[in-house]
Amino acid sequence: MPSLPDMTKHRGFPGGMPGTGVQFTIRRANPRGVTPIKALPRKARPGTKEHRIDAAFLHALWHHFGAEPFERGNLDAARLSLLFGREVVPATKDFDPLSYEAMLVIDEKVARKNFPESFEDVFEV
User: Most buried among 41, 45, 110, 124, by the most CB within 10 A?
Assistant: First the structure.
């Protein structure tokens, strides 16, 4: 079996949203290749369960990384893709959506507009 690519594990980052089965991180690199990060249309409307999950993930990103660029690492590609191109954007011009080392950053202005609850000190689940 070929060795898996290196992947930063963000220690202390929540694994998912309690009571939903939704994951925020992955345990190990994908043996079939890195799942690309791409902007996915978001159908969740404010007040829905899906919107709360996106808001919780953004809350975790903000309180773990703040306004600083961060490495994709073991963050779930599907969760990132729902925020990508809006609240989360590439931090570098040479962004590689197929790399666990890709650098991302929160677009604070857009994120605060779309998910103001994610910037509160406490996020009620």
Answer: 110
**Count of domains observed in the chain:** 1
Can you tell me the distance from the alpha carbon of 93 to that of 86, in angstroms, rounded to the nearest whole number?
A: 16
Average pLDDT over residues 56-73: 97
Residue 104, number of CB atoms within 10 A of its CB:
22
Beta-carbon count within 10 A of 45 CB: 8
State the chain's mean pLDDT as an integer.
Answer: 92
Whether residue 38 is contained in a domain is answered as no
> Is residue 65 assigned to a domain?
yes
CB 6 within 8 Å of CB 70: no
Q: Each residue of 2-55: pLDDT tens digit?
A: 677 788 999 999 999 888 889 999 998 888 889 999 999 988 788 888 999 999
Q: Is 3 part of a structural domain of the chain?
A: no
Of 49, 46, 44, give the one whose Cα is nearest residue 116. 46
Q: What are phi and psi of 58, to 5 degrees?
A: -65, -40
On whether residue 35 sits in a domain, the answer given is no
